[in-house]
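Appendix B. Chain record.
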Amino acid sequence: MITVGVDLAAEAVRTAVAWLDWSDGGARVREVVVGADDDLIVEALMGADKAGVDCPFGWPDRFVDFVTAHRNGHVEVPAEVAGRTWRGDLTYRVTDRVVVESTGQRPLSVSADRIGHTAMRCAALLAELARRGRPVDRAGNGVVVEVYPAASLRCWGLTSNGYKRAANLGTLGLLVDQLQETASWLDLGTHEQLCRRSDDATDAVVAAITARAAALGRVTAPTQEQAPTARSEGWIALPTGALRDLGRG
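C-alpha cells predicted for this chain:
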C-alpha cells in the first residue's frame, strides 16, 4: 500500500508531500518534497492507494447560503440572537465542531481565516482528480481524505502544538523523536533530518500516516445525520486507534 500525505498551503513554497510505502509490518518514507506545485500533488494523489490532505475540503453550508443570499439581495439575520452566535454558525463546519469536542484542538475557519486561500487551491486540485477519473468524496470515502495533523497527533498522545516555524525547531525535534519511539515501525530513512528542519515535511508524514488509518477504517466517520453535510463541507478523519498498531495492518 502506498499512502500520500499533503500538507497543503496556498502556494507551493510551504506545501509538502510525503509518500509512505507500507509492507512487512512497517512503513518506509519513500520520498518527501517541500515546495510542491499542483502538478506534483495531482500526480502523487493519482498514484496513491489512500491520501490525506491537510486542508478543508469545503465551506460551511450555512456560510455558502449566507453569501448566496447576500449576493441575491439581503440576508435574514436571526432575531434576538447575539451576532457572535449566529456568525459562529457561518464560521465553522460540522466537522470542525466535532474536532473541538473530541480533541480540544480548534481548526482554522475556512470562511473567516486565511486558510480560505488554501481551500481554493484544494478545490481546484480535487476538481482535477475528478476530471482524471479518481473518486472524490469530501466525506473521505474516495482516494482522498481530509486530515488535520495536529489533531491526529493529539489523538495519539504526541506533541500537537508549539512545533511550527523555525523558532521552534527544538519542539519539532522532540515531536520527531516521539513519532519514531511510538511508531517503531516507521522508517524515516534519509528524510529524518528534513522532518527535523521542516514542520511542513513532518505534517506531510503525519498526514500520510493518518491516510493509512483511514484506509484501515480506524478513523472517525460522520453519523447518518452528519453524512449529507460532510459530503459538501468535508470531514476531518480523526484516528480512533493507537499509533503503534498501524504498522501491523
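Further analysis of this model is presented in Appendix C.
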